[in-house]
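re the bet — no i am not wrong, look at it urself. input seq straight from the record:
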Amino acid sequence: MTIARVAGTVVGSAVDPGLAGQRFLLVEDCDHAGKGRADFIVALDAVGADRGQLVLLAQGSSCHWSRMTAEKPVDALVVAIVDGIDEGGRVTYPQAG
């Protein structure tokens, strides 16, 4: 899994029938502190994430382990909303401001 930040949504006029009604998000790959790396991908939203939230992203064949995506053409899936990151006893996200 990787950490990403929701940058926005992606809307298509024609969608695979198995994915009709699903929400697609534009997400940016992030480091352990939530800083973006300017690398964007589209992911199916399984958790109802909002713009600006840090999320966990599953990619590749592991995306097909959920009921929502089994037998569907999904390459990236938002599986969790990140509340905090603790690296060796030091909180890296959310950063104190």
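see?? The chain has one domain: 2-12+20-93. told u. also The mean pLDDT is 91. so pay up
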